[in-house]
């Protein structure tokens, strides 16, 4: 599994087809995770809910280049003023958010994501502040 981070809007836009194709077979297939929704949300930072943010989408690819996981994240100060990695779409506008991967790929993707976030190249944050997750 190869981890690639997306830090700019053009990079995010370029993922549209792959993103939606993976979402269609993912464990959490909800409309609030569609590429079009996430991109529009990012461009307005939730309609102004967030004053600032730094895009930090983490993707995982197979050796053949196929996309197998997406953690749609951004770095901001959370509501308590702590630097946090939050899910794009947080908090008030989106009903359900999550990472995107097929059920069979989810454990390996989450492990690779957490390993990546623990490394020096990840942004400095105090917590993963994730809202609106499905119960299952």
Q: What does this protein structure show overall?
A:
The chain has 136 residues and is of the alpha+beta class. It has helices at residues 9-13, 16-24, 35-48, 106-117; strands at 2-6, 54-55, 57-61, 67-71, 73-77, 83-87, 127-128. The protein starts with a strand and ends in an 8-residue tail after the last strand. Helices cover 29% and strands 21% of the residues. The chain is built from 4 helices and 7 strands, in the order βαααβββββαβ. A 4-stranded mixed beta sheet has the order 2-5-6-7, with no helix packed on it. A 3-stranded antiparallel beta sheet has the order 1-3-4, with helices on both faces.
Quick structural summary:
The chain has 136 residues and is of the alpha+beta class. Helices cover 29% and strands 21% of the residues.
Strand order of the largest sheet: 2-5-6-7
Low-confidence stretches: none
Radius of gyration: 14 Å
Overall average pLDDT: 94
Which SSEs are present, and which pair or pack?
Layout: E1 2-6, H1 9-13, H2 16-24, H3 35-48, E2 54-55, E3 57-61, E4 67-71, E5 73-77, E6 83-87, H4 106-117, E7 127-128
Parallel strand pairs: 6-7
Antiparallel strand pairs: 1-3, 2-5, 3-4, 5-6
Task: Provide tags for this entry.
alpha+beta; 21% strand; 4 helices; 136 residues
């Amino acid at each position: 599994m190869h981890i690639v981070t997306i830090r700019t809007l053009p990079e995010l836009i370029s993922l549209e087809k792959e993103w939606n194709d993976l979402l269609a077979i993912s464990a959490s297939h909800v409309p609030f995770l569609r590429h079009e929704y996430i991109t529009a949300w990012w461009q307005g930072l939730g309609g102004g809910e967030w004053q600032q943010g730094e895009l930090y989408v983490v993707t995982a690819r197979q050796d053949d280049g196929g996309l197998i996981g997406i953690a749609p994240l951004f770095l901001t100060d959370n509501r308590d003023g702590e630097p946090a990695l939050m899910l794009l779409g947080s908090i008030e506008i989106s009903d359900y958010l999550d990472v995107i991967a097929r059920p069979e790929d989810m454990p390996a993707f989450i492990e690779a994501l957490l390993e990546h976030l623990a490394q020096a190249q990840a942004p400095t944050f105090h917590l993963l502040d994730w809202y609106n997750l499905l119960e299952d």
